[in-house]
Structures are given as C-alpha cells and as structure tokens.
Design goal:
The complex is a heterodimer of chains A (about 475) and B (about 475). Chain A is about 40% helix and about 20% strand. By secondary structure, chain A is of the alpha+beta class. In chain A, a hairpin with a 4-residue loop joins strand 13 and strand 14. In chain A, helix 3 runs antiparallel to helix 4. Chain A starts with a strand and ends with a helix. Chain A is elongated and about 95 Å long. Chain B has about 475 residues and is α/β, with parallel strands linked by helices. The longest helix of chain B is centred in the C-terminal third of the chain and has 24 residues, at about 365-390. The chains are: A alpha+beta (about 475), B alpha/beta (about 475). The interface of A and B includes residues 44, 79 and 90 of A.
C-alpha cells in the first residue's frame, strides 16, 4: 500500500443563493412544498425560453475572483443533453466549451505545510430536480430545477483523505466570505464528487480514475476516499485493471459501489445554447466585484499571524466562517491578549458550548482574556466562567470581583493549602519520598481543591513539590 | 356579408369601423364558413367557437371605445405550435394530443391585446417538420386551389385557412420556408421576419436559431399590419432584438423607381420551367417600374440545403428530448422514454431526432454541426455583402408549384425546392414571399424578396408596389 500514491481531483457543486433561479423568476427557497416553486420555463414546457439572471453572474464572478481565477469577459452557455426524470428539458444549460473562470487556486494547510491546489475551471449551470423513492414509485420535485449552480473543478492535486477534507473546508470558508452561498452540505447547497486514481509513487502518468458522486458531508468524502484508495490498490496489486466506473458511497457500510443506471460514458452531444446570448461581463464590472469582496480567509490568516502571533492552523479555524472571523477580530481588538482570545474561541468554547452560536459578546470575551493574561484568574476559573458566560453572557470582571474568584498568587496563602494537602495525604507524600514522583499530582490536586480552584497553578505546583522535597 | 372571403384585413377594419357589420357578426360568418368548407379542406385541428365569439364581443366593445388597432375584431387562424393557454396545442403530434398549455405565447398575448379574434388552431406537419403538412399525425389538409395538391408545409393549415376564406389572416412559423412555401403554394403573402424580430416565447421550437413566427395574408399591406402587432423585443426571449420601425407599412405606396434588385447568378437553374418563367416575368415587371437588376454572387447558397439539414436536425433533436412518457403521452410500464416516443412520435420526427443526435455526437461535432455553424456565418456574410450592391435580393420562393399530395419530391424528408427559403433562414435576414405569377395549371408561383436585417419596411414597400403592377 505504501508504494502507491492516491491522486484526487474534486468537482464541487455549489448552489448560489440568489433569490430567484438561474433562468426564470421562480424562488429558490429551500424546503418549500414540492412543485410549488416552478413555472413553464423551469418545467420545460414547449416554447418556454430561459432568461439569464444577472445576479448569478455577479456571484459566480465573486467566487472566481476569491479563488484567484482568470475571469472571461465573454463566456457562453451550452446544452448538455441526456435523459433523466429529474431533468425536464432533457438537457441542462451549462458552460462546457467556454466557462466563466479558469486557472485559479486554493491554498490549503496540509501536514506537509501550505499547498496550492489548482482550480482548473469554474462554470455556471442549472440544477436538476430532486427524486425521492417511495416504495414502488419515484416522486419528482422540480423546485430545484433551474436553481443556479457553480461547478468548481480542481486539478488532481490532492493526495489524501485529509487533504480532501482540508480543501473542502477551506473552499467552503472562502465561498462563505463571498456571500455567494451558504454551502450547507446537509441541505445540498454544496455537493462533492471525487475523481480518484492510483499510481505507483514516482509515476507521473495518471492511473484509471473512478468517479464517486454525490457525497453529502466532509466526513463521507474522507471515508469514501480512504475506501476507494484501498479498493483500487487491492485491484492493482492483484494484477487486475481498474475500470472507469461511476460510484456512489454507501455511508452505512462504508463502501463504494457502482451506481445503478444513470451514465458512465454518455455522449452529452454538447452544443452552444441557441436561446441565450453570450455571457458578457466587462472588465470594469469584474474589478468592481473584486473591490467589493471582503478580506478573504488567506489575508486574514496572515494578518492574525503578523498582528497577533496566531499560528496559521489556528487562523484557518478562526476563518471558517465570516461570523467567526468577525467575532474573533472584535474580541482581539479589545484585549491585550488576542492569542488567548483565539485559544478560547478555538479550544475552550467549542468543548463547552452546546449551542450553534457563541452567546458571549466580544467585549466580555476580551475581558476574560485580559483577566487570564494578567494572571488574575487561572485556567480552571476561566473554564468555570466560560460555562456560565455561555449561558448568560456575564461580565467576567464584575463576576470575578463579586464572587472573589481572583487567583491566589500570594505564596504565603498558597503554602497554607499546600501544607494542608501534604498533611492530608501521607501515603502520597510517602510514595513521593520513595521515588514515585508522579504522586505529586494527587497532592497538587488536593491543594487546588482546598483552595477552591483559586491558587495560581504554576506557583502551587512549585510550592507543593518543594514541600514534598523538604519533608524527607 | 358578400364576398367576405375575398376581403382583406384592411377592408374588414374599415367595414367594422363603418359599422357595416359587428365583430361578432364577422366572426359568426367565418365560423359558418369553416363549418361549411373545412370538412373538405382540413385546415383546422381545433375550432374554438365559444372563445372566438366571446373575444369578438370584447372586440366590439373595444371598437366602440374608439380602438384604432386595425386587427381589432379581425378573425384569424393560429398554427398549432403556438401556445394558447387553456386551448389544446398539439403541434399535430400524438404526444401532445392532450396537452393544454398553462400559458400563452407572447404572440398570442399580443394578438389578443390588439383585439384580434382567434378562430382556432391549424394543422401542420408534426412539430413543423415537413413541407407538405402530410406529416400531421391527425389529418390531411388540401390546397384550396386544387384539392389533389398539397397546401405546402409546415404551416399548410394556416395557408389553406386563408386561401379558403376561412380566416382573414393566419399565423405560421418559418424555420426553413414553412411560412413562405405554403403561402407560395396557396397564392398568398407570407414573411419570415428578421431573426429576433418576433418573440419565440411560446412557440414550440423546431430549430431555435432559425425559427421565426410570421403572418400569412392576402397581400403585403395586411402582412405589414399583422407583423406590426406581433413584433418587438421580449424580455422573455433573449434572442429578440428591439427595432423601432415606426409604422412597418409606412413605405407602402412609395415609388420604388431606382431600386436595385439583386439576382443571384444561375438562380433559375434549379427551378421548374413554369416557375422560372413567372419569375422572369416578375423581373420584367420590376424593370417596367424603373428598377435596376443587378447580378450578385452567393457562392455558399448551394450549401444551404445541407447546412439547414444539419442545423435543423441537431437543434430539433435537443428540443424534442423533453417529450418523455412522464409528463406527455402515456408510459408503458417501466419504460418512460423509448417506447412512449416510439409510439407517439411520427416517422419524420424520429428521423430528424436520429440525424440530429448523430451530427452532434462526440467525434462528429466538428465535422457536422461545428462546420454547419461556420457555413451559416458565411451565408450571412455573403448576403450582407450582396446587399451592399443591391437593395433587395430576388429569387423564386420555391422551385416548383404545389405538388400533388403523396408526391412531394423529398430527400431525407426534406424538400430541396425549399432551398431558396433556407438561405435566409440560415442567415437571419428577412424574407418576404409575394405571388408573382401563375405556373402550369394556373397554380400560383411565389417569389422571395430578401433584404438587410430589419428592412421589412422596404420589403413590404417593394412587394406592395409589385402587387399593384402585377394586378393591373
């Protein structure tokens, strides 16, 4: 297995969050009753014609710019012809020959450091309907027909399931910052297809790839990649050849399996869409859209590193969503310890927070960071306060004062607790004297408890150990 | 109400305003004539007496209010591929036998708001594929001038209705001559407007880049009147171009002395002798009016027939894909696409779908469709170049007069005699057919006057002047 390398390219479909569909004025709201957001155009009635929604072009351009692509001032729509019950016109309007965006990249943090994953192209297309299988019938909901999508195609630059996850997370972040989509994989506004092939390490040619379609979570994408890699390796090792297949991932059983029917190597008979003119976006408009983009994750990650010494890996987490980034930046601007604020957001809060949002105002978080950074409270107190602040957004400074939660830094005071702990735990002290140094942990813990969690942990540790050392 | 069948739209408009009869009386009379004659002619697939009378009454109210639109109260026939809300629209195909559109075509809306009265939907070749109306899945239409002969196609029903005096004017659609050829066979005036002049929204498409809706009338003035009512930029059809003609009939009656008429070299080579003679005679008439005859070169015109075959079948095959067994026709158990389409689509439709799929198939695109698009551009350029040397181009409309039913000389389902028409369909230039004489057996011969894009005003002027001279 180690002599093989996994080569992965991703095709990610993202639903753009325009109010109306790509080619008609039906609404795009998620969760509407079936076939209530439809019209002759998206239902493909004879004679109905598409009219292109300009907002789609703006949002697609924004994403293209955010992914460092070249934007074509003139691109075109084509028809992709095939039969499927969820495709009313029996063709999809897409951009095959001349897509809107080309030659971009996305920077991703991997275990080997920062990696630039190439983005071959991004194009605009319309979504198909949704099929649901009810017993012996299949129901077709055309609400989704005509919803605008962009398809983001990466170069086969990814090499592992972890890289795939990192790419998807970063892609999602960047797109969230452009405001073009809510990228919810569980709602289908972001979908991922994986193209995977295997080759011996050192080989430069590509092996036969398979395509795994419609992965609906980052986790499933990872698991599918891991499974498919090992499946292909087994095939190659046994002397067989991998065949081009379109697969689906069975999340329950954790395996990939060939998709029933649909298409594997269908001829789509692409030709230019005669009902629509060229897609034109003048250079000035492209520039304008670029200017109106907010600071994107990579810029902010750099900023956090330069200004606040927040490491890049942490920066990636802080910029997962615009809300998170804004939150951090607000808090960071109000505290003398922005790195602490970052850690609170990244580590402490997620382990304690049961809600979707952070119920603590940036100012209060900043105050908490200050209290900890100044040594006024210890980490145990921080956690206790956080739990309560997540419920009620308490002002930490006030609470600390009111409840006397300040850390005890006075060494005399600390010594009292340390001595008492040693006296209460003669066996642990004995063990320590006999050479079992780890016995100090129990004593330190007891001392901290006696001090009701307030002693400065570093000082407490020092003093406990010095007492234990003394009593020989 | 004598000689009602001989009256033009203009004459009716005048009579209505003079209160010689009401719109209701006029419509009643036409409905009576349809009842008397259409059993033999077979022009109509569906006569909508109830709505027609209601619309006529509404028109009477509009006239009372001083409505100045010349089409107000005028009864007309609509080709059955133009969608009419709530009224069956079958495209003369079994697969749409029970189709009742949920919306009106833009042309339908425009005619309705002008106050015109729709008598019913007319027979045609199935999905406009044909040149004789013999491909209708439902009935036969005969040429009112000779019931052994075809009225032409695909708008045969519309032409027959006007020629038989069953409607004051009719609406047809022209993709490769389907308005002009039947108009020519029936001794009427028909126009294929500049591509983009009339909205295709609600016209069941044959070839999206070629289709145009056009009126069939007794004379040029009527045709200009109807075209005025139906043309215009439509936000629902992105291929429409706005053009401010003012009054399209404005040039009628103007002196055309000095007009340069371009005649392609060898143009009569492929025409029957009687057609050639009539067209030669027409040229004489133009000379006598003081027009100059100029020789022009249109070298790519000999490829018009093949070019049309490729482009039309390609786009048609894609447009026809939507007719599946899920929403149209009935489905055989389990087989939604193939058996429904096999059963309910006619032979000519199937032939073109296969041809179209073939020319678009992978590996064939560049050889056929890709190349055909280039030839299309060439033909357009040559036409533009020729029109710098002359004001209008004159050719026969069709190489023959009306052929006998069952004896249409077809090649792969297409009639080579339509080639004259096909050239301007491919180039997008406007092309007006005007009867120019009689051939063997007294059958009408038509000529084509084609001009620069949006030169319809000039074409009607020339046509009308010719009519006056011809009839003297």
């Amino acid at each position: 297995m180690n002599e093989f390398e996994c080569v992965i390219g991703l095709e990610v479909h993202v639903e753009l969050n325009t109010e109306t569909k790509a080619f008609c004025s039906c609404k795009t709201d998620f969760g509407a009753a079936p076939n209530t957001q439809v019209c002759p155009i998206c239902l493909g009635h004879p004679g109905a014609l598409p009219s292109f929604n300009g907002k789609v072009l703006e949002k697609a351009t924004a994403v293209g710019l955010a992914l460092n692509c070249e934007i074509s001032e003139r691109s075109r729509f084509d028809r992709k012809n095939y039969f499927y019950p969820d495709l009313p016109k029996s063709y999809q309007i897409t951009q095959f020959y001349r897509p809107l965006c080309r030659n971009g990249y996305l920077s991703v943090e991997t275990e080997d450091g920062e990696k630039k994953i190439g983005i071959t192209r991004i194009h605009i297309e319309e979504d198909a309907g949704k099929l649901s299988h009810e017993g012996e019938f299949t129901e077709i909901d055309c609400n989704r027909c005509g919803v605008p999508l962009i398809e983001i195609v990466s170069e086969p630059d990814l090499r592992s399931a972890d890289e795939v996850k990192a790419y998807l997370k970063k892609l999602r972040s960047v797109i969230l910052f452009t405001g073009a989509s809510d990228c919810r994989m569980n709602e289908g506004s972001m979908r991922c297809d994986v193209n995977l092939s295997v080759r011996r390490k050192g080989d430069t040619s590509l092996g036969q790839r398979t395509e795994i379609k419609n992965l609906n979570s980052f986790r499933n994408a990872q698991k599918a990649v891991e499974y498919e890699f090992s499946r292909q390796v087994k095939i190659i090792e046994s002397g067989e050849k991998v065949s081009m297949e379109t697969l689906r991932f069975d999340a329950h059983r954790g395996v990939t399996e060939p998709m029933r029917s649909k298409e594997s190597a269908l001829d789509y008979r692409y030709f230019p869409e005669p009902d629509l003119p060229e897609v034109c976006i003048p250079a000035e408009k492209i520039k304008e859209i670029g200017k109106s983009l907010p600071r994107l994750p990579d810029d902010r990650i750099k900023e956090y590193r330069d200004k606040y010494s927040v490491p890049a890996a942490d920066g990636e987490i802080l910029t997962e969503t615009p809300e998170m980034a804004e939150y951090f930046e607000s808090a960071a601007s109000l505290t003398r310890y922005p790195k602490t604020a970052a850690n609170l957001i990244i580590t402490d809060i997620p382990s304690l927070n049961e809600k979707e949002d952070i119920g603590i105002s940036p100012a209060h978080l900043a105050a908490l960071a200050d209290l900890f950074g100044d040594g006024e409270i210890n980490s145990a107190t921080v956690k206790k306060l956080l739990r309560r602040m997540l419920e009620n957004d308490l002002d930490p400074a006030e609470t600390v004062d009111a409840e006397g939660l300040r850390q005890i830094n006075d060494e005399e005071e600390i010594r009292k607790f340390a001595c008492a702990a040693v006296l209460e735990m003669p066996r642990a002290a004995e063990d320590y004297r006999k050479g079992k140094k780890t016995a100090s942990a129990a004593v330190i813990g007891r001392a901290m408890a006696l001090g009701k969690g307030k002693p400065n942990p570093v000082k407490l540790r020092e003093i406990c150990i010095s007492i234990l050392e003394e009593t020989e | 109400m004598n000689d009602i069948t001989k009256k033009t739209v203009a004459a009716h408009a005048e009579s209505l305003r003079r209160r010689e009869y009401s719109a209701r009386e006029l419509t009643t009379e036409y409905l009576k004539i349809i009842k008397e004659r259409d059993g033999d002619i077979g022009a109509f697939l569906f006569v909508d007496a109830e709505n027609a009378l209601r619309d006529a009454e509404a028109a009477d109210r509009m006239l009372e209010d001083g409505n100045e639109n010349l089409l107000c109260g005028i009864p007309f026939a609509m080709k059955d591929n133009v969608l009419t809300k709530g009224i069956p629209t079958t495209c003369a195909s079994k697969i749409l036998e029970n189709y009742i559109p949920p919306y009106d075509a833009t042309v339908t809306v425009k005619l309705k708001s002008a106050g015109a009265v729709m008598l019913g939907k007319t027979n045609m070749d199935e999905f406009a594929m044909g040149s004789s109306t013999e491909n209708s899945a439902f009935k036969k239409t005969v040429n009112p001038l000779d019931p052994e002969r075809s009225p032409g196609g695909s708008s045969g029903g519309s032409a027959a209705a006007v020629a038989a005096g069953e409607a004051a004017f009719a609406i047809g659609s022209d993709t490769g001559g389907s308005v002009r050829q039947p108009a020519s066979f029936c001794g009427l005036v028909g126009i294929k407007p500049t591509y983009g002049a009339v909205s295709r929204y609600g016209l069941a498409p044959l070839a999206s880049s070629l289709d145009q809706i056009g009126p069939i009338t007794k004379n040029c003035r009527d045709n200009a009147t109807v075209l005025s009512a139906i043309c215009g930029k439509d936000p629902k059809d992105s291929t429409t171009l706005g053009y401010d003609w003012g009054d399209i009939g404005d040039g009628i009656g103007k002196d055309i002395r000095g007009l340069k008429i371009g005649v392609p070299a060898d143009m009569l080579r492929d025409a029957d002798r009687d057609v050639a003679a009539a067209v030669e005679n027409a040229l004489e008439i133009f000379r006598s009016m003081g027009c100059g005859i100029v020789g022009i070169e249109l070298p790519s015109f000999e490829y018009a027939f093949s070019d049309y075959k490729v482009i039309c079948s390609a786009e048609a095959s894609s447009n026809m894909g939507r007719f599946d067994g899920i929403r149209y026709g009935e489905s055989e158990d389990g087989e939604l696409f193939f058996s429904t389409r096999s059963k309910l689509l006619g032979a000519e439709v199937k032939r073109r779908i296969m041809m179209g799929a073939y020319v678009l198939s992978a590996g064939n695109y560049d050889k056929y469709y890709g190349k055909a698009l280039k030839v299309k551009t060439l033909i357009a350029r040559e036409t533009d170049a020729a029109l710098e040397k002359c004001d209008v181009i004159l050719t026969p409309a069709v190489s023959s007069t009306a052929f006998r039913i069952g004896e249409a000389p077809l090649c792969d389902g297409l009639y080579a005699g339509d080639s004259f028409c096909m050239a301007s369909s491919l180039s997008g230039h406007p092309s007006l057919e005007v009867p120019c004489g009689k051939g063997e057996g007294g059958l009408p011969v038509g000529m084509l006057l084609s001009g620069r894009k949006f030169s319809e005003k000039l074409l009607f002027s020339v046509g009308a002047s010719f009519e006056r001279c011809r009839d003297e």
